[in-house]
Design a protein that fits this description.
Strand content: 15-25%
Helix content: 40-55%
Number of helices: 18
Number of strands: 21
Low-confidence stretches: 526-530, 532-553
Largest sheet: 7 strands, mixed
CATH superfamily of the largest domain: GroEL-like equatorial domain
Distance between the termini: 32 Å
Shape: globular
Length: 553
């Protein structure tokens, strides 16, 4: 990038910087975004395949979850990174539909390429896409069906749909029951659901069928002292965020001890301080102490003598859940210990789960926090189960919060595509072309579902379209039967927010990438030369001069 002044070039950018502009920059960015979408496309739907990702230290992740795949992949291209953001947003907002969002964003960019070739200005395309995205939200609202939080049957179907195609499929019935029970238990009266109060404990060993729900909190710790009771009934629980050990001085102090008697007095005083702390705990009437910080050896002895079950170094998040389940207040100072601040639980006991001791706090009066114990044959199975359950929990929570769901299996996309084409015809100018492109792009979802199931995508799309033109709005693709079917009847349903969020974030990111007409890349650190265009082409198809996509693609 330079300017000429009397034949003398003036350099504005640092040496080694690269600048790609105009059509080249757009082409590079679109190619990178499409490559990301293609990487996750094959995982979509009940017949989707899984990916195996190996990181630099050789750790293996086997997953079907779009956002996990994109997070684990080491993506360097800036436009490709924006696609990862789409998946992350979808995951944070709804927990499911990450692959859908990325695939739609990739297809929107692919369709925009044709329009750019016809010399439609990027701003016009962006405007059309925005109009189409807004219209899509209206249409989806129209298509949605109400669901109440006590409609357990429908909530199960929603959880079931979220888990289909993931590793959890074999024991879906068992797991959907656990998920729906967990969410309905922690839901507040006002309809808000915070999935943080469902704790997932992963244990390798046993089979998926051994997974269970515990109405209360399970802590992956053991008693601090073997002389403590293993089982405490009608427990009074003290949650402490302070160390049960002698107080050290706040400032640096030096104690000078000149005789053995003084040393003994010093040690006795230390022990007396700890004894006083334990006496405070005993006086409060607590029978179970759960401490976020350490418990001194001497304190452990005194607590065991008093018959108190104590656990130390418990995570803060676990204390929050315990506080909600037992009604105890987390106390942060020894002096503030009070009988009124204690919580209660019918049973606190230590059990062995696949060879490891765990503490179960159950039979709470109002278990607004629950724990799912997930079991599986190998670590990879358990991890993938955990991801599937996480998605299902979030999806059921969203369905209860919004109270609306739509049919799945590509049905809403085909309907949207149809209605958007009608909407495009009412618009004048070139924006009409962009709205039509948006409508065509949405069909990538049923198309991909068909491809992943080994069906003919064109035949399926034609069949789906004719059903929707006949007014059957909930007809989607039944990949098991290989033909269109009513998705409401087969129980393939998703919360409306999965779709609205996916389309909104896909449109926003596509518009953002489209509007970039200049990529100015700083020179690499360490003075290394930028690769030549030939090298770039070899690495990733010459993706906008930005150290092409990683070879995984």
């Amino acid at each position: 990038m330079s300017a000429n002044l009397g034949g003398q070039p003036i350099f504005i950018l640092k040496e080694g910087s690269q600048r790609t502009r105009g059509r080249d920059a757009q082409g590079g960015n679109i190619a990178a975004a499409k490559a990301v979408a293609n990487a996750v496309r094959t995982t979509l739907g009940p017949k989707g395949m899984d990916k195996m990702l190996v990181d630099t230290i050789g750790d293996v992740v086997i997953t079907n979850d779009g956002v996990t795949i994109l997070k684990e992949m080491d993506i360097e291209h800036p436009a490709a990174k924006m696609m990862v953001e789409v998946a992350k947003t979808q995951d944070d907002e709804v927990g499911d539909g990450t692959t859908t969002a990325v695939v739609i964003a990739g297809e929107l960019l692919k369709r925009s390429e044709d329009l750019l070739e016809q010399d439609v200005h990027p701003t016009v395309i962006a405007h059309g896409y925005r109009m189409a995205a807004e219209k899509s939200q209206e249409i989806l609202d129209d298509l949605s069906i109400e669901v109440k939080s006590d409609n357990i049957e429908m909530l199960r179907k929603i959880a079931d749909t979220a888990m289909t195609g993931k590793g959890a499929e074999a024991s879906k019935e068992k797991l959907t029951e656990l998920v729906v029970r967990a969410i309905t238990m922690i839901a507040d009266e006002d309809g808000t659901v915070d999935t943080d109060f469902v704790k997932i404990e992963k244990k390798v060993g046993g089979s998926i069928e051994d997974s269970e729900i515990v109405e209360g909190v399970v802590i992956d710790k053991e008693r601090v002292h073997p002389a403590m009771p293993k089982v405490v009934r009608d427990a009074k629980i003290l949650l402490l965020n302070a160390a049960v050990e002698f107080k050290k001085t706040e400032v640096d102090a030096e104690i000078s001890i000149t005789s053995p008697d003084q040393l003994q007095m010093f040690l006795d005083e230390e022990e007396r301080m700890i004894k006083a702390i334990v006496e405070k705990i005993v006086a409060s009437g607590a029978t179970v102490l759960i401490c976020q910080k350490g418990i001194d050896d001497i304190a452990q002895h005194y607590l065991a003598k008093a018959g108190i079950l104590a656990i130390r170094r418990v995570k803060k998040s676990d204390l929050t859940k315990l506080s909600r389940a037992t009604g105890a207040t987390v106390i942060s100072s020894i002096d503030a210990i009070d009988a009124d601040e204690l919580g209660s639980a019918g049973l606190v006991d230590e059990k062995k789960v696949s060879g490891e001791e765990m503490i179960f706090v159950t039979e709470c009066v109002n278990p607004k926090a629950v724990t799912l114990i997930v079991r599986g044959g190998t670590e990879h199975v358990v991890d993938e189960l955990d991801r599937a359950i996480e998605d299902a929990l979030r999806v059921v929570a969203v369905a209860i919060e919004d109270g609306k769901f739509v049919a799945g299996g590509g049905a809403p996309e085909v309907e949207l595509s149809l209605r958007l084409r009608e909407f495009a015809a009412t618009q004048g100018g070139r924006a009409q072309l962009a709205i039509e492109a948006f409508a065509a792009a949405l069909e990538i979802i049923p198309r991909t579902l068909a491809e992943n199931a080994g069906l003919d995508p064109i035949d399926m799309l034609v069949a789906l379209r004719s059903e929707h033109e006949a007014g059957n709005k909930t007809v989607g693709l039944d990949v098991f039967e290989g033909k269109p079917a009513d998705m409401l009847a087969t129980g393939v349903v998703e919360p409306m927010r999965v779709k609205t969020q996916a389309i909104a974030s896909a449109a926003e990111s596509a518009v953002m990438i489209l509007r970039i007409d200049d990529v100015i890349a700083a020179s690499k650190m360490g003075g290394g030369d930028m690769p030549s265009p030939e090298e770039m082409a070899a690495m990733g198809g010459g993706m906008g001069g930005m150290g092409g996509m990683p070879p995984m693609m």
